[in-house]
Amino acid sequence: MGPYSVIIFIPVLASIVLFHIISWQSIHWWALALQMAWQTACHLWLLYKEYYLQEEITLRLFVMISALMLLTQKITTLAMDIDERKVKIIPVDGGMKNWFFSGSAQQILMFLSYLLFFPALLGGPLCSFVEFHNQVSESHRRNYPCFKQVTKGCLFALILQTLRILVSINISSQMSLLSCRHLNCVYTMWTTALLFKLSYYSHWLLDESLFRAAGFLKENQVDGFQATFYDADIWTLETTHKISVFTRTWNKSTANWLRRLIFEKCKVGSLLITFAFSAWWHGLYPGHVFGFLCWALLVKADYRIHKYFNPCQQSWCRRLLYRIFTWLQTQLIVAFLIMAIEMRGFKMIWLLCSSYNCFFPILYCLSLISFIKRKT
């Protein structure tokens, strides 16, 4: 990151100070507000450089903003742990000499270690401070990391990257969304979204392998700590016929963070508010706002549709046809959402909405409207 690392260090040090001057009852909202204000300012600075100054965003800037977004997760998670009394702040009392040898200094060092833990800032899964502390405390009992799991993760990531290259070669010889016509646009959208998904899957596997190499994600541990780290449940993501299941499984640690931070604390419109906050957290590009708000509506429609059609699946033939149709629908809707979110701009939104690709989300939205009217 080079000089941009200062943008990471400032909120880390500020959050440590905040934890010691704000009461534990209100620390959660203070940490969330200040960290999101800092992150939003950085996102606006990037938008200014990219669109107004027409400057190319360098790799260092991308790494910096990604690390800052993940740091937001860690700071707010620690603040929620303090708010829920899972972590208690040791007050800073006495002179400098007494403070240095006190438990407060040790706790601050642990906070710094947790917030600046580099495998997590590079894209690794999220864990709470308590889990991190327990893993570090027990590290002397483990003689070596799980090399078998690390090797397996790296091998799978290599296979996925190879598959991604093969798919990209095939796409390069096909039409793009700018020149495609009719049903060819659906195929182009699906294959392009597949490239993004393969890239995410391989990165998640490498991130998990890095965590294992650092001594985390112990082998033969099924419950608790390990269960929160499986961001790359590829089988579930690619075989599910429910958008809601895909949403809960996609980047599971971030989904759990959003559920705990926003969804469980909102009494009205929790689903829509959660996705709106996700768009804000991602940077408020036009594609982010459009994509995440559409995602919220489609998840709501997905709940209604499956609840309505479940009693109709009496025979195995009906169940099979229903699963095939809803699986195809889920795959194409997910491709639509990924394209809107990843491409970010108004131009891509217009290309998606003016082609056959918009048929699939519109079908679910019309179903949601019909269910609401029927209920009223």
From TrEMBL:
It is found in: Endoplasmic reticulum membrane. It holds the Pfam family MBOAT. The keyword Mitochondrion does not apply. The keyword Membrane applies. It is a multi-pass membrane protein. The chain crosses the membrane at residues 6-22, 29-48, 60-79, 99-122, 183-201, 279-299, 320-341, 347-372. GO terms for cellular component: endoplasmic reticulum membrane. One of its GO terms (molecular function) is serine O-acyltransferase activity. GO terms for biological process: lipid modification. InterPro entries: LPLAT_7/PORCN-like, MBOAT_fam. Keywords: Acyltransferase, Endoplasmic reticulum, Membrane, Transferase, Transmembrane, Transmembrane helix. This is Ghrelin O-acyltransferase.
